Amino acid sequence: MPPQRLITHLRHVDLAVPDYQTQLDFYTNAWGLKAEHSDSGLTFLAAEGSPEQYVVRLRESGDKRIDLISFGAKDSADVDTLAGQLAADGVQLVSEPGTLHTPGGGYGFRFFDNEGRTVEISAHVGVREHRAIEEGESIPVRLSHVVINSPDPEGTQAFYEKHLGFALSDTLMHPRMGNMMFFMRINPWHHSLAIARGPHPSLHHASFEMRGIDEYMRGTGRLLRAGVEKIWGPGRHLAGNNTFTYFLDPSGNTMEYTTELDVLDEDAWHPHVYDFTQPEVSDQWGTANAMNEFLAAKSFNDPDKGLFVAPPV
């Protein structure tokens, strides 16, 4: 049986960027998200197919950072229980459980993870009016997963397992460099969070689920025609069995279009260790451009300037 969990799913990833207007134009006019609840230097971006109020929040800032990663909980009792457990374990809370003043409201709190990222847990957030994405419509359905870079991925994996109930789905390894990426789940989706070995804490990438293969390919092609820089893809990973095409946003954050991420039978699942020097591990289809150290370095991203500094909103 999966471990007892007090969080249920990934809600949104909040980013601070210096080039706010350029980023806003990218996410709305190129990437396919919808701007809602905008304020001066702050925009909440929704995925048309998702019940979440927003999947990305953009905030104008002189510092490039992850403002926070947000996860959902079942109810306020679970929020309170988790906050109490974290505090008892010595985890630094940024805010005590209380009413949220973001779109949809709700009840939640924030804390710093082991490397100083701000994490939010919330319940009772209002459901957004959303719709079924139509055949051929090449816009994101939902936020699929977030991948973070960590110079101590084993320690970060242990933190999320111990304190938040994440389970390991699969690991990518390199014969000389050791374990390089840990895929972590909080529900039957193969991963909602993954932890990559990197030189510093930062965002590795955020991934957005498309309606299906056709819509995924149409979206990939649309961005290519628009001149958005592609890093890697299109292809299909072995771990998670999902498709991938990675692009750079104007701030240098890596963003992914994906579809068909595995949904696991958690009672029967046993984690694999995959050697990603084997070509079929990175790309089962063999259609993506070859991954090399120069491409990989693009997803190292800039060092996160928000560690152990709570976002102002």
Automatic annotation (TrEMBL):
PANTHER family: GLYOXALASE FAMILY PROTEIN (PTHR21366), METALLOTHIOL TRANSFERASE FOSB (PTHR21366:SF31). Gene3D superfamilies: 2,3-Dihydroxybiphenyl 1,2-Dioxygenase, domain 1. This is Catechol 2,3-dioxygenase-like lactoylglutathione lyase family enzyme. It comes from the Bacteria. InterPro entries: Glyas_Bleomycin-R_OHBP_Dase, Glyas_Fos-R_dOase_dom, GlyoxalaseI/FosfomycinResist, VOC_core. Residues 9-124, 142-260 form the VOC domain. Keywords: Dioxygenase, Lyase, Oxidoreductase. CDD domains: BphC5-RrK37_N_like (cd08362). GO terms for molecular function: dioxygenase activity; lyase activity.
